[in-house]
Specification:
single chain; 143 residues; mainly beta; ten-stranded parallel β-sheet; six-stranded parallel β-sheet; 18 strands
Length: 143
């Protein structure tokens, strides 16, 4: 039985999706036989190998691994999809669709990588990276 990424008889963390880095320690992992329904927020990465229904809003990384399935919107610093997402993806830094990815929804990020073989039904908007705000020059009034 697999719960939160641990499989009986297996050692070590679950394999990363097609070329993605292994999940960092301390990440929340939804195992391949697990199903999560609800909203997820917090300050740690999340890796989805199972089913997730709801929205995710975190300042870290979201990975939807193979064979993970996500139904809902994702907002994170970075998003990597190897499984299936049915919802909007908004990444503050980078969104990556691996060759095995299937996404039904829009992708919005400053940097977007779509591997050959990935399937996307939606629009891509590459927003400008956030630049530091430049203060306006002070005007002096003459009398």
């Amino acid at each position: 039985m697999a719960i939160f990424g641990k499989v009986e008889g297996a050692s070590g963390p679950p394999a990363p999706p097609d070329g993605a880095a292994a999940p960092p320690s301390g990440a929340t992992v939804i195992g391949p036989n697990a199903r999560f329904v609800g909203e997820f927020s917090g300050d740690e990465d999340i890796v989805i190998h199972g089913q997730f229904e709801g929205n995710i809003d975190i300042p870290r990384r979201v990975t939807v691994a193979v064979p993970g399935q996500m139904k809902g919107d994702i907002h994170a610093r970075s998003v990597v999809v190897g499984g299936r997402v049915n919802g909007q993806i908004r990444a503050d830094e980078r969104a990556e669709l691996l060759a095995s990815a299937t996404v039904q929804g829009n992708v919005n990020a400053p940097k977007v990588v779509i591997a050959e073989g990935a399937r996307l039904q939606g629009n891509v908007a590459m927003t400008a990276e956030r630049a530091p705000k430049i203060p306006e020059p002070t005007r002096s009034e003459e009398v």
